[in-house]
Amino acid sequence: MKSKFLRNIYTCVPFLIIILMIGTIHTWMLAKEQSKPYPEPFGRATALPQPATDGGPVQIVGEGAFAYRSGSTLIYMKVKEDGQYVSETRPIPDTELFSSYKLTGNEAFWIGSGNKLYASEWSQGVWSPRKELSGSAITGFQTTSEPNGKRVLLAYSELELYAGIYKAGRAVSWSKLDIPGISRVQGVLDKDGSIIVVYSAGKDGIVSIGYAKLEADTLRPLQEDKLKDVELAAFNKMEELEFSTYGTSMIAAYRISSSKSGKSYLRILSFPLDHPVTVEDHELQIPVTASSLSDTILHPTFAKAPSGELSLLVSSVYEKNRRLTSQEVYRIGFKDGKPTASMPISQSGGFAEYPAMTFIGESALVVWLDPMGDGQFHLNYATDHPAYKERTSKLTTDDIRIAAQTLPLLWGIGLLTALLGLKWIALPCLYLFALIGFRQHHYDSHPGFHFGLSIGMYLAAKALFIGDYRKATALQVMPPALQSLLAYFAILTLFAAIAYAVTRVWRRGLDERKVGLEFFYFVLLDGFMTNLWFSYFMSPAAL
């Protein structure tokens, strides 16, 4: 080359082109690795713009409708089958204290001032003045609705459980059950109109799961039974209790967590409604890999489809591969009262929690939260409607952008894998040094022969140490088409051919042939391509 400046530029340009080409391929591969396989049969998640500010599941307020709190407002969402949505913003009905709230389409219940239960109705764009429902302080409450518009309230204090029927504009008449130490309670409507109540209450390391059946109109207790005593170790506690009816049986899910190990597991309890003392209890196990089970199962909730099919949703560990492990939402079906295979619904790559499910016709709508810090949560939803799945299950520009930003983290291991190349150059370097020292004339007279021979030694050593780049950890994240030996050698041959072609052009700028310098440039190019390419698969980084 006539200009030394141009020669120096050409020396560096091939490396920049290699970074660009391999970087483009790796970005595409990483975007697919992070996004695929898409959840089945659900589409990819849609994120809502307004974050949630309460750590808990959204409130289901109708078919395809849910509500949640965002700061000092309540966001009401209505989602269509294809995933499009409309939203409505309402102020919270009590600016003094608004905790442990329950929302319906046009009603709100909450624990407010004095730890008493209050209610308000939404009408003509405003909340009605709050109405006190309980005369005394309560610890918590739950609601359940009936087809005739009545709403059953279940409130509890440290000593008692109260049940009352709420109708707008009427006072609530409470019945009382003497059940002390209640920590959580839930009720559902039975087929005969009665109310089934399941609760947990405990002291001294023993939590009792109890059952009560209340008469439809008076809420007078018809039956009370203790289902199970759960003995807890010193570091364990019962966190959640959810249940649903299933045919002539009832199924409950309760979670035990350990403050010592940080792990939590879920147990499924079932019994026939006509004989609640016959209880079956077993642990729910969700596989993470072929040889391991999830040790963190959170936030169980039941959902029943219009067809009567029952599903249990939980947040559990999901491992896509060795560098992509996350907490995702799982859906577990039931057959004959027994859990069937589980499947992940979300693939957010974060910490999906607090799932909730409702239905839009025959299509399921699942909503979950993902913490974003500072007491705020991303809100995501997905449906299993074919139109939604077709629209969302594709790579996006955000996928490509995130992959491109993440790629340098995976390439960082290339600084270490480059040391593997020292084994490839040892033999040809010794050969060239010996030739210069003892056969300088032959070295100068036959540069092409010695250049070719040194490259042959280099490539032979590189092929000999094939196992360096074919460790099990690398193969695990390598696309199947690239895992065969044939593909491996094809890639090495391609890199060698590119390096040789570039070196032939590059050496035209030299005043005379210098085998050592040509070989050095070839090795730099070939080793750079090889290590950059395989560092993507060998990187131990967790994403």
TrEMBL record:
Superkingdom of origin: Bacteria
Keywords for this protein: Membrane, Transmembrane, Transmembrane helix
Regions that span the bilayer: 12-31, 409-436, 448-466, 486-507, 519-538
Protein name per the record: Uncharacterized protein
